[in-house]
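Exercise 3.2. Students should predict the tertiary structure of the chain below and write it as structure tokens, then compare their answer with the key that follows.

Predict this chain's 3D structure.
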Amino acid sequence: MKAVAIRKFGRPEGLAVIDLPAPAPGAGQVLIAVEAIGVGGVDAVIRSGALAAYGFEEGHIPGGEVAGTVTAAGDGVDASWIGRRVWAFTGVGGGYAEQAIAPVEEVLPLPADLSATDAVTLGSSGVVAHFGLAHARFAPGESVLVRGAAGSIGIMTVQLAARGGAGAVAVTTSSAERGERLRTLGATHVLDRAGEGGEDAPAGYDVVIDVVAGPDLPSFFARLNPNGRMVVVGVVGGRPPADFGTAMMSAFRKSMSFATFSADTVAGRDRRAVRIEQFAAASRGALHTVVHEVLPLEQAVLAHRKMDAGEVFGRIVLTP
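Answer key:
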């Protein structure tokens, strides 16, 4: 089968198409004939080599989110899965391939009217957005700032905050055109990447959901209201400065809170329940997926170039 591996850490050109034997599912696993692959920010971070210290090595196959049809089941897996269209989380990799293995507990049947492309645009990002807001203790009527709102996690956070009754939903983004698209999804105020601008935008926010992190993270503590909460759900901009907490400590009397959030800390049954609800909501048009572009698997390098250049609004999807 065809797959895409990280031949060399660094630039997108380090990705290469390779041939591998078709995998076989082990106990508790299923084999999926892949129809769609979600290209996520974490794939780009892994490809860059930034996470090599965590055990990622050259030769790694990126991709944690696929949709397709189950073709085989391992020991202990109900054979009724075979032939079903599913969304699946493959873990920290293995998704950039024509066939993928996933643990059955991370597999969900797809609603009949939800496409594989839409499923991999929503499956992981929706869960991060939902539980990220919950981690921030977001409540109806509160103001929310989504930093880095043009990606799939940011887009879902905007929608969920608006659906949850936010008093204001501000976004940071790189262009007025992107800002207008985010308004159609629930944003009420559009700011630049530094968090400036926005006609009649709130002076401060109760919740900041940050997908970016990076060197500018400390400046956003100034955007928090007293008792405000910042939750970092992504690091597409890299790590923040080592002394980023100094900015928060300098405003000690505002009683601000800072946290990171990873969906790995959420029980599997809870992630599953939220995905079932969100897939149903997308099927009936209550949630909207945004697909930037669909590219063939062989063009993974191009997909990553577009991500690195900041061109992507929503999610790029690869198809074998």
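Discussion points: The two ends are 10 Å apart (CA to CA). Helices lie at 41-48, 116-135, 152-163, 176-184, 245-249, 268-283, 300-308.
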